[in-house]
Amino acid sequence: MMASAPHGGPRAPRIDGERLWRRHLELARHGALSAGGVDRPAFSAIDAQARRQLVDWGRAIGLVPSMDAIGNLFLRRTGRRPELPAVATGSHLDTQPTGGKFDGAYGVLAGLEALASLHEAGLQTERDLLLVVWANEEGSHFAPTTMGSAVFSGQLPLAEALAAQAPDGGRLEDALPAFLAAHPEVPRQDTAPPLHAFLEAHIEQGPVLEAAGLPLGIVTGIQGLRWLEVDVRGQEAHAGTTPGSVRRDALRQAVQMARALFAHFDALGDSVRFTLGRWRVEPGSPNTVPGRVRFTIDLRHPREAALADGEEAIRQLCETHAGPCTVAVERLSGSAPIVFPEGIRDLLDQCADLWAFPRMALVSGATHDAKLLHGVTTTGMLFVPCEKGISHNQLENATPEHLAAGTQVLAEALLRLADA
Ligand code: GLV
Ligand code: MN
Ligand code: MN
């Protein structure tokens, strides 16, 4: 157990839920889309703009910024004993191409609001508090997902991250220098700051809390994830003259693979999550038989053994349906399921109790930076509901009351960890 069990009522000051809500709307202007969502690609000029806004808000309450080599941004609030490992919180500011206002932004703004409430109450903690914006959580342009926290935690070598290539062929090592240079006022910090604990608040991104009518979830763990890419190669040919019997049509075979894969995973039921999210068809011309098709697979399950079986089934089914084409299945990235430590789950639960918020325990279906931090420090997560469970969608929504409830519990838990 990291902090003594809460007793004697709440210690954290009341957070300002109205300011928290307003800041979500202000931040969402950076990359705003017409249907209410946000497109803020990791390492883009828009991503840098959003961070500058955050740095300004942080500076106004005395937070000191720094940034590491992969673009993780740290905003530090100094405690009485800065020589001790800090207590960190945060999430990410990059979004999906058609993302919402809350995925990632909530964890960052909840952390900022928690620190603002301590600042306004004039409360100094023993340990430093660190608000972190992890770089490139979404991984939708430069894979893998949770890139910044993976580099920070030593689970992805920096050189490997820099070699990441976007679907348009652009390399991260070419894009990153301009992004880092867009923050001239933020000093570089190339050694990872030692951490005592990390807490991440996030919208649930699924339907469980809303269906249960609860404002809060204590996350027990995060399911495992595999990203694969299937590469089918055939032969380009004239669409009008080439008879079907002699074609080596990469799309035809890829579609057969997809049908077989959906049938396989559908039969396994709801505990497995299987998605074919990106298709690239070459040459992409209406009157040329496709010579090459690549499609991605996102496979998730709470048990590692089920992921291993799933990956094996994918390889076999793709071979079986390759026909006159060749196929290669490459693993792009993966992470095992994790379970958060009981001590931190208990602390979050007790803090929720102090503020009288009903809650439940639940597993996270989405991946989060907290999964990577779990490898290096005591880590926990809090969820708040989102409307109809919708996320990775411009319509993503949450209520100011639920966002405030999660932030209040976060502030209470951070305070207790930072004084432990
Ligand atoms: C993160 O956005 C994920 O894909 O779970
Ligand atoms: Mn997220
Ligand atoms: Mn996301």
UniProtKB/TrEMBL annotation:
Keywords of this protein's UniProt record, alphabetized? Hydrolase, Metal-binding, Zinc
Entry EC no(s)? 3.5.-.-
Q: Which residues are listed for Zn(2+) 2 binding in this entry?
A: 103, 138, 392
The family database entries (InterPro entries) matched by this protein are listed as: Amidase_Cbmase, Bact_exopeptidase_dim_dom, Peptidase_M20, Peptidase_M20_dimer
**CDD domains tied to this protein:** M20_bAS
Cofactor(s) listed in the protein's UniProt record: Zn(2+)
Q: Which family does it belong to?
A: Belongs to the peptidase M20 family.
Name recorded for this polypeptide: Hydantoinase/carbamoylase family amidase
